[in-house]
Amino acid sequence: MSRPKIAPGQLAAVEYTILAGGRVRARSRVRDDAGVLHPVKRVADTAEEALALLERRAAELSTGFEQLVTAASTIAQASAVWLEQLAAYGTVEGSTYDSYESTVRLIVVPTCGGVALRDLSVGRADRIIQRILAERGTSAARKARSVLSLVCGFVVRQDVIDRNPVRDVQRLPRSPKKESFLTPEQIEVVRMLMRAWRRPGRGRTRSCWRMAWTSCSAPAPASARSSPWSAGTAM
After folding, report:
1. What is the DSSP string of 70-85?
2. Is the pLDDT at 35 greater than 90, yes or no?
3. CB 109 within 8 A of CB 68
4. CA distance 190 to 82
5. How far apart are CA 65 and CA 69, in angstroms?
6. pTM of this prediction?
7. What fold, for 75-168?
8. Nearest Cα residue to 198 out of 189, 208, 186
9. Residue ranges per structural domain of the chain
């Protein structure tokens, strides 16, 4: 009966040799993704270290890889590695990276940085986000959920967890809508520009509307909210 074929990224039987000086040489073979066998050898102070070097080389020859985090890694550790990967590969703009880094440092790590990845269930992720919502508000909770989901996506790609638990947390409440009011002076500016726009012989362009919006974009003072002009003035 023939021997089972070595799978891509898998080491064949490892041979150890004690060298002069006490160091250990480990030798084996590994198959790449194309099915080609490669002889590999590494030297280290101990057999365990030599084997670890062989396994790393085997991962390099296939689509296997060295895991940068494990199930025992904490959210803080995984976040740090994720940020390092973003910086190394330049996959996001500098301003986006700065936003992610500040969210990790100021919100995620102080809240749940010590939680191990293997303990991050959907329920626990939901409770973490809800705590941030209660203690720091909607904006901080939204940032934390977004960044924590990205970190978990990275961990999934590292084959550490099977799914991203943050995707199934409950939705956060919407931020309150901001209301704006026009002062009587601003309304008069709009009317003046509209009359100029309607004047016979002038080309009707959108410039007047842009001027009106620019003139009236400043927030009205608090006193204007009680003015009769703020209660749905007809134009």
Report:
1. -TTSBHHHHHHHHHHH
2. no
3. no
4. 51
5. 11
6. 0.58
7. DNA polymerase; domain 1 (1.10.150)
8. 208
9. 15-60, 75-168, 178-219
As a whole number, mean pLDDT of residues 93-120 equals 95
| Residue 22 Ramachandran class (φ > 0 left, ψ -120 to 50 alpha, else beta) | left
Q: What is the pLDDT of residues 124-182, one digit of tens each?
A: 999 999 999 999 999 999 999 999 999 999 999 988 999 999 999 999 988 777 777 88
Within 13 A of 194's CA, how many CA atoms are on the CB side?
8
CA–CA gap between residue 158 and residue 33 (Å, rounded): 19
Strand ordering across the sheet containing 24-31: 15-18, 24-31, 37-44
Helix (H) / strand (E) containing 127: helix 122-136
Residue 43 forms beta bridges with which residues? 25
Query: Helices 207-215 and 184-198 sit at what angle, rounded to 10 degrees?
Result: 170
- Fill in the amino acid letter for 131: R
Structure token digits, residue 132: 């941030």
Question: Using CA atoms, how far apart are residues 80 and 147, in angstroms rounded to an integer?
Answer: 12
Q: What angle do CA 111, 147, 158 make, to 5 degrees?
A: 105
Check the CA dihedral 96-124-69-34 and report its sign.
Answer: negative
